[in-house]
Give the backbone structure.
Amino acid sequence: MQETIAFMNDLADESGKVIRQYFRKSFKTETKTHHDPVTEADQATEQTLRAMIADRYPDDGIQGEEFGITPGISGRVWVIDPIDGTKAFAVGRATFTTLIALCIDGQPVIGCIDQPVANERWIGAAGMTTFNGHLCHTRACEGEPAFVTTTPDMFTTEREKMVLGAMAGQSRFVTYGGDSYAYGLLSSGLCDLVCEAHLKAHDLMAVVPIIQGAGGVITDWSGRVPSLDFCNGESLACGDPALHARLLALI
């Protein structure tokens, strides 16, 4: 496990070197779908990570946002989101992250959230989470939670809007933006609740072991933990397990 964690740190170090070459500079941007940009920094970063993984663990599979699935034979799959928060990156806001996860038999067991401009890194594995090499923990929520979500626009159906309204109604305040950076903040005990919709496996696999290792809980809105075999796009993440149980019952 320690060898794999060390390699994940190497991956994050190298991805940061690539990303910093493009941050707040000119780069090419394409549009995959409406309001869904991809930059040459996304592509270059994922290519770098794929090459490193293939060289070190040639039998492992790779699943990335930009270049799809490379099958493996080991039962291990690396899941990559080279720049989570491409819109934030494109406008020069340092709240984007690189997400790297290792899944074994479909279950996320090690995760990394890396912010290469602020030099902030969360790694979760084997029941513990570190922030920049030091153990970190979620916090108890004795009153109304501080709620973070990327944007209200991701809640599109009537049910999704109902869930957003219910979470906001239980919270002392809501703040928008941050993408997966918010899950790192939750793991460090700086906010209490992250609730989102329409996420993909590459958005969630890294954050699951990080939140769990810090003492929090993350599931979909029915109480199921996301995995490569089950990812319906919903997330309900709380630092305090009692808060999670209460909000899950409310939904």
User: Anything to note?
Assistant: The two ends are 37 Å apart (CA to CA). The longest strand covers residues 76-84. Residues 15 and 45 are 6 Å apart (CA to CA).
